[in-house]
């Protein structure tokens, strides 16, 4: 595994992150947005892990665990919100969920 | 200067007692019944008068020339400090007794006079409030505390002139009095600043001590400047030319107020100040001459206006202005004791005249025009006789009070080293006119037939409509009249044999002739030879001048009798014959109109057009409004960014992150 240069991991990580950003920006469905966020988080996790392994420390691993815990909590809360939004608005299009806008 | 081992020495009580009365009536008086309001007011002024008497006794028996006491420091700035202090000498003693004594009598009178007016408690609150500040003015031991009293009486005067504030003319008269006085106060304040700068203190004793080291100024110097500025202040408060215009209008106030504030006490504050500052004035002959000239001019012109007025209170108002001019003339020829003497007798007889006029107005239901009076002698004999006494007194007929003080002034104007025969001549002519217009008032009011319609409900006194014919006033109003009448007779006797002058001599700092002579040695001949010269000869001269003034007083009486008793049709014919002159005098020389055209008009125009419409509206309001509009326009551009689109925000976040990354990469590759 040590044969693979770290730049590969980083490029993959950047690619995943860019996919997430792009998806977040161009998609309208809330669920898709959520998935894009997960994609971005995991892209970042990948670079954490890559650096941690390369440097032989545990810091990166710990960070990744934190990120995963937060992402899980966020998914739980976010999905609950999405369900209640769907029940009241009968849509998952973010552009239509605009009651609080000026 | 000691305050030890005195039997009863609490001079702070004298001003504080009326203040307590004012506070009690002012805070709770609205819920009190009228009798309680009156009792509170009378109790505290009466107690103040008693305290004044006790302290007068203490001072006279302490053997000291002056007693001074300080109740703590008010202001301290570097070496300069001002105390809350009381200074009691023979001058403030006289003022204090006059203020509390006459003030108490007028309070008694007001209890009955104001019975039917609204705002009973308000009236007595203001009146007690006035007493407090007037006593502060006369008892202060430094100029700044005097200035506090000075402003305070101005405030009380404003409140009381505008007492019937629903009447436009009363509200305007109050404002006029206050604003005119501000002009004078400006001069007084500058004088105080000069005193602080050059003397470093405002305490009387210290100021006069420093002043005594100055020599008499032959040309204008610092003492002259201070004296002239003080004169400006005195002109405002004591209604002298050119600031006298407020006093006649001040007659809009209730009559007891006119008697107390605008005749007996407050308007004499200027005279008091000049006499108090005699060590300064005596060393500034130019300022002294200005005082005398202003006094002589004022006494003359006010008397001429008094002749033509038909409103009983206005006649008395101009008479007050004229008599104050007399006092200034006396002070201006360095005859300070004569000035204070006249101040005292004038307080008695002029308060009496005003209270009598008030009694007349009260008795015929609010009418003030003398042409609608007449024949009142049989309806109100007490008022008639007491007013007659006062008229004799003001006309200078012996043995009434005014004779002694007026004669002293005339003699001093003639003989004093600062005097001149011109002042004496002006004084004599004024005395003649005074006698004439005062007896004109008496004849028009009390003799002949009653010319007024039966008074009815629309009058100023209109709350009670039982005035079907003139009636005498209640005893509560007559008692002060009688007491003041007695004082108007005997009040002048203290001046017999120069006793009054001796009494005041500790207050008047002698400016030694040697000092004077050393200063201008070319003039040595005049003062000494005159002062030491033939005493017997001057006695003869004094007596003949006295005879002249008595003669003049009687001829004024006679002329008034001839015009208004014997040939009542004559005055209007003379008025018709000299129409231009008559109109000029009747309209008070158009001074009010002149002031409003020359000063008030431009001032109002400047304030309205330049200050308000240009500077305030365009510059100040404009800059505030313009900056608000600019802020709104700029934010109009920026608020476009806050679209509410989540993806737009996310895009900006991503773009920002990308920019940061790009920057770091660029920095890394350099």
What is the helix tally of chain A? 3
The average pLDDT score of chain B comes to 87
Helix content of chain B: over 70%
Q: In total, how many beta strands of chain B?
A: 2
Distance between the termini of chain A: 54 Å
Q: What is the element string of chain B, with H for helices and E for strands?
A: HHEEHHHHHHHHHHHHHHHHHHHHHHHHH
What does the main sheet of chain B amount to?
Answer: 2 strands, antiparallel
What is the radius of gyration of chain A computed over CA atoms, rounded to a whole number of angstroms? 17 Å
Oligomer: heterodimer
Described by strand count, sense and barrel closure, the largest sheet of chain A is:
none
Order of helices and strands of chain A: HHH
Runs of chain A with pLDDT <50, length 5+? none
Q: How far is the N terminus from the C terminus of chain B?
A: 92 Å
Structural class of chain A: mainly alpha
Largest interface: A-B, 9 and 7 residues
- Taking all Cα atoms into account, the compactness measure Rg of chain B is 31 Å
Strand numbers in spatial order across the main sheet of chain B: 1-2
Shape of chain B: globular
């Amino acid at each position: 595994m040590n044969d693979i240069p770290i730049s590969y991991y980083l490029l993959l990580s950047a690619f995943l992150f860019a996919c997430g950003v792009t998806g977040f920006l161009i998609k309208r469905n809330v669920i898709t947005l959520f998935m894009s966020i997960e994609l971005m988080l995991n892209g970042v996790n990948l670079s954490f892990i890559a650096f941690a392994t390369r440097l032989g420390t545990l810091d990166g691993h710990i960070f990744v665990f934190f990120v995963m815990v937060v992402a899980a909590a966020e998914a739980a809360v976010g999905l609950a919100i999405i369900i209640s939004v769907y029940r009241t608005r009968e849509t998952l299009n973010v552009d239509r969920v605009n009651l609080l806008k000026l | 200067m000691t305050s030890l081992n005195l039997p009863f020495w609490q001079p702070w009580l004298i001003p504080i007692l009326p203040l307590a009365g004012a506070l009690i009536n002012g805070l709770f008086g609205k819920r009190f019944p009228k009798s309680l309001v009156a009792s509170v007011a009378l109790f505290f002024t009466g107690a103040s008068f008693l305290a004044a008497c006790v302290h007068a006794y203490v001072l006279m028996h302490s053997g000291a020339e002056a007693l001074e006491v300080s109740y703590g420091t008010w202001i301290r700035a570097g070496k300069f400090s001002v105390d809350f202090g009381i200074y009691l000498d023979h001058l403030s003693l006289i003022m204090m007794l006059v203020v509390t004594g006459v003030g108490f009598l007028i309070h008694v009178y007001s209890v009955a006079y104001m019975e039917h007016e609204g705002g009973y408690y308000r009236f007595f609150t203001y009146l007690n409030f006035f007493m407090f500040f007037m006593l502060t003015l006369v008892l202060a031991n430094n100029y700044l505390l005097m200035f506090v009293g000075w402003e305070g009486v101005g405030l009380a005067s404003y409140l009381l002139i505008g007492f019937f504030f629903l009447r436009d003319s009363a509200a305007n008269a109050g404002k006029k009095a206050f604003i005119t006085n501000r002009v004078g106060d400006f001069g007084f304040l500058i004088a105080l600043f000069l005193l602080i700068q050059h003397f470093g203190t405002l305490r009387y004793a210290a100021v006069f001590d420093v002043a005594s080291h100055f020599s008499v100024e032959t040309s204008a110097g610092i003492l002259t400047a201070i004296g002239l500025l003080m004169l400006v202040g005195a002109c405002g408060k004591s209604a002298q030319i050119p600031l006298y215009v407020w006093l006649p209008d001040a007659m809009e106030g209730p009559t007891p107020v006119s008697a107390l504030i605008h005749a007996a006490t407050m308007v004499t504050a200027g005279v008091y100040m000049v006499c108090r500052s005699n060590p300064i004035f005596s060393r500034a002959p130019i300022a002294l001459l200005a005082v005398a000239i202003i006094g002589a001019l004022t006494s003359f012109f006010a008397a001429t206006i008094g002749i033509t007025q038909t409103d009983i209170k206005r006649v008395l108002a101009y008479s007050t202005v004229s008599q104050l001019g007399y006092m200034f003339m006396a002070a201006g020829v360095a005859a300070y004791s004569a000035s204070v003497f006249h101040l005292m007798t004038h307080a008695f007889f002029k308060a009496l005249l005003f209270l009598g006029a008030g009694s007349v107005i009260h008795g015929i239901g609010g009418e003030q025009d003398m042409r609608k009076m007449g024949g009142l002698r049989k309806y109100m004999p007490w008022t008639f006789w007491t007013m007659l006494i006062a008229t004799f007194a003001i006309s200078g007929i012996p043995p009434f009070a005014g004779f002694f003080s007026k004669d002293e002034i005339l003699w001093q104007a003639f003989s004093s080293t600062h005097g001149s025969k011109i002042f004496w001549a002006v004084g004599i002519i004024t005395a003649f006119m005074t006698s004439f217009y005062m007896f004109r008032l008496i004849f028009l009011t009390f003799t002949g037939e009653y010319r007024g319609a039966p008074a009815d409900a629309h009058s100023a006194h209109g709350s009670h409509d039982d005035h079907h014919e003139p009636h005498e006033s209640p005893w509560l109003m007559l008692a002060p009249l009688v007491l003041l009448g007695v004082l108007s007779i005997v009040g002048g006797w203290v001046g017999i044999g120069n006793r009054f002058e001796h009494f005041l001599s500790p207050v008047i700092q002698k400016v030694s002739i040697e000092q004077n002579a050393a200063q201008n040695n070319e003039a040595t001949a005049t003062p000494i030879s005159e002062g030491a010269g033939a005493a017997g000869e001057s006695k003869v001269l004094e007596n003949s001048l006295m005879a002249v003034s008595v003669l003049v007083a009687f001829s004024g009486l006679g002329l008034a009798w001839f015009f208004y008793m014997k040939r009542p049709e004559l005055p209007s014919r003379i008025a018709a014959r000299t129409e231009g002159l008559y109109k000029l005098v009747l309209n008070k020389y158009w001074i009010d109109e002149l002031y409003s055209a020359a000063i008030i008009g431009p001032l109002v125009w400047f304030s309205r057009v330049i200050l308000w419409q240009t500077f305030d509206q365009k510059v100040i309001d404009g800059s505030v409004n313009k900056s608000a509009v600019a802020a709104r326009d700029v934010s109009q551009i920026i608020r476009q960014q806050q679209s509410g689109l989540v993806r737009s925000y996310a895009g900006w976040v991503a773009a920002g992150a990308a920019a940061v990354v790009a920057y770091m990469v660029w920095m890394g590759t350099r």
